[in-house]
Amino acid sequence: MLRNMSIRQSLPQIVAVMVKNWLMISLGMSIGYTTILIGGVFDGSTNHFGSISANQVSWLGSTSTLSIFIGSLLSGIVTQRLGRKRSMQLVTIPFLAAWLLFYFSNAFWQLYLGLGITGLFGGLVEASFCAYVSEITEPQLRGTLTATGSMSIFIGLVIQFLLGTNYNWRKCALISCAFPTITFLLFCFVPESPYWLIMNGKAEEAKKSLAWLRGWKAPTDVAAEIDEIANRHESGKCFDWNDVRRYLKRSFTLPLLLIAFMFLLHTCTGLATLETYSVSIMATMDVPINAYYATLILGVSSLSGSSLCIILVHRLGKRVLLFISLGGLCVCNLLIAAYTNVANIKDIILEVQNSSVRDLGADKYGWIPFTLLIMLSIADHVGNSTLAWVVMAEVFSHETRLLGCGLGSSISYLLRFFSNYLFLKLIAFMTLGGVYYLYGSISLLGIIVLFFVLPETEGKTLEEVSDHFQGISKLDNKVRRKKKVANCSVTPVI
């Protein structure tokens, strides 16, 4: 990846993306906190909420994703007005406020409000996540650095699960305050996207930004590249409500439909509900270790799967990796469903104390569902969860990327909301085994559909991907491992 680039040229791009990833770690921690909260609110020593119903638990598991959906709808507008970097930096303030609200909460509605704040403001920067990375990185780094975003969310999950094994949910919230604080400070040291600066008439600042990103060069060294960017943005704006025709063309609608289906697979093949209700699911399955430690192991397995994705995507390509991932999900879901039928597990345990699950009646076969759940997590993150976000950053043209990424993200979280909210209701309707049979069937459907509609984008330029969806040309399904032109000074991705 770095063979055709100097370390000096690539390092500032990596640093800028890693700073952005600190915010994604905070987002991952807020997602993981829902799991800690659901498992902890039943502990009378840390709350005074009284009797808690299953419907209240459902809303705890769904409020964050619903508010992320709302925020994602507005993310394109916010990102374009405030800038990629500034919008990401400013959302750390409400994140800090939400963590403090969790810590001091004494009423159940305050938990909903805290989850709503982290979700809403996390959703507001979804477009920034995609646009910032694609606009500051060169093609050789784009795929890998984009994938590190998903890995950062999983790191946040692991950190939160690790905190949950040692502290109650209030202390977890207090410790979590450190991450948005650090993130705010780190953003002071990285530049704004040169694309956004050009589109807003700040050419001199754009030169300084691009010079920083291309190896801390002098602004005069990137003048030609800045001129080329400016020529491609003569309209001055990439998000224009007055020109809706571009959003009605197949170059936008086909990628959006593809991304919507990939996010359906992302949220309806078992992992979304497992991450939210993992403590309860582990207890229900009678896993042979403490449910909170089991959840921590689950988070580590998610991180491992995401790391494997980053390593393998350049070798196997996105299509093959997705088919392997979905195949693994299909097998794991069907085996979990079969186990619940054999073990006569119909419902799910919601009230779980931070003690050994063996106290709940675990037997010697508890390692079977535990292994299957870990394998399901790895299988999902090795392709299905991670690559949906990577593909979303590639399939939209530059003119429609902000709105496309914002809508794609909102679709993802809307589907996640319904998946989490309906999980307990589906179990009551078709038993736990029936739900996992459904997940397995959706995984199989995903393999069949993506085989025909997903092109291989690994190693292809964004112009080639855009031409494919416009019908100008057709991408083959082979991974391009070598660049067509050996040129170290490449124009940033558009």
From TrEMBL:
Membrane topology recorded in Swiss-Prot or TrEMBL: Multi-pass membrane protein
Membrane-traversing stretches: 21-42, 57-78, 90-109, 115-133, 145-167, 173-198, 252-272, 292-313, 320-340, 367-390, 402-424, 436-454
InterPro entries registered for this protein in UniProt: MFS_dom (IPR020846), MFS_sugar_transport-like (IPR005828), MFS_trans_sf (IPR036259), MFS_Trehalose_Transporter (IPR050549), Sugar_transporter_CS (IPR005829)
Subcellular location: Cell membrane
A GO molecular-function annotation: transmembrane transporter activity
Predominant localisation class: membrane
One GO cellular component term noted in the UniProt record for this chain: plasma membrane
Gene3D superfamilies, per the entry: MFS general substrate transporter like domains (1.20.1250.20)
Annotated Major facilitator superfamily (MFS) profile domain residues: 14-458
Keywords noted in UniProt: Cell membrane, Membrane, Sugar transport, Transmembrane, Transmembrane helix, Transport
Protein name (record): Major facilitator superfamily (MFS) profile domain-containing protein
